[in-house]
Amino acid sequence: MRLASFLIENRQSWGVIEGSEVADTGALLASSYPTLKAVIAAGAYREVAAATREAQRLSVDAVRWRPVIPDAGKIICVGHNYEMHRQETGRAKADHPSIFIRFADTQLGHGGDILRPRESTMLDYEGELAVVIGTGGRRISRESALSCIAGYACFNDASVRDWQWHTSQFAPGKNFPSTGSIGPWLVTTDEIPDPTKLSVTTRLNGQVVQNQQTADMIFDIPTIIAYVSAFTSLSAGDVIATGTPGGVGAKREPPLWMRPGDVVEVEIPGLGCLRNTIADED
Asked: With contact defined as beta carbons under 8 Å apart, do 69 and 239 qualify?
């Protein structure tokens, strides 16, 4: 099942993607499940499937996409999780995942404008695989970690590099408003039985700038979930971005920064293609 959050004539809703159409399932189930996060928390997929048969259908071009989980309680990101990227950044090998946090208001959906802030011109792309938690908890074991996942989505952890490099802490460069994106939709785990058999491709203005298999992660998804859930309780709808492959713009010669008018795409076969334009912040 493919699930998405969107706006229809400024009304917030969510629904099921079926080919080139969107079923406005949220309009029928709003009293019980006002958001997609509520659906995931309740595990109400059978109810959603039944309601979808009666829901209004719209063209995918008729909606404005929101982040898959607009109200995510936590957005947890993993840094330097592909060997090629670790090497290009000169980071030492580590025994544990490098973790940083994004705020929910830094995210936008498919088709929206990633904003280059006034404070910097060093805006970089980072295509990633995102995991959305279904069944949360504390101290989740590696063995049960995959069963806690609701689904997967494409993620662009776009970064304001000079602000990221102000100190050893990444947070400033990762939390300017509307600098990251997730979508276009969430694909449930029944359609993605093995997340290690995916590939992450990032294109800037049609040119491939990143392309790597998820099997190349240094810390796999079960390890990440077990590690993160040891220090914080995970909840339904929380998002974990699993790291970006090598090829980031900051490590190219000369550096390749995203500029207003550019188009950036993150594509993962089976999950779709997350597409955003770059614009200057007003």
From this structure: yes
Rounded distance, CA 206 to CA 77, Å? 26
Q: Are 232 and 250 in contact (CB under 8 A)?
A: no
Q: Where exactly are the structural domains of the chain?
A: 2-65, 75-280
Do residues 227 and 219 touch, judged by C-beta distance below 8 A?
yes
Question: What is the rounded CA–CA span in Å between residue 159 and residue 177?
Answer: 11
Number of Cβ within a 10 Å radius of residue 180: 26
Which among 61, 128, 75 has a CA at the least distance from the CA of 106?
Answer: 75
Whether the CB-CB separation of 243 and 81 falls below 8 Å is answered with yes
- Segment-wise mean pLDDT, segments of 10 residues, the chain, 282 residues: 95 96 97 97 97 96 96 96 89 92 97 98 98 97 97 98 94 96 98 96 98 97 98 98 96 97 98 98 90
Reading the block at residue 48, the tokens are 């959603």
Task: Name 230's Cβ contacts closer than 8 Å, sequence gap at least 6.
Answer: 138, 139
- Say how far apart CA 86 and CA 274 lie, in whole Å: 24
Cα dihedral 232/239/50/1 (nearest 10):
-130
- Please tell me the pTM assigned to this model: 0.96
Q: Please state which of the four CATH numbers 3.40.50.150, 3.90.850.10, 1.20.1260.10, 3.40.50.720 is assigned to the domain occupying 75-280.
A: 3.90.850.10
CB-based contact 241:155 (threshold 8 Å): yes
For 231, residues 6+ apart whose C-beta sits below 8 A from its C-beta are: none
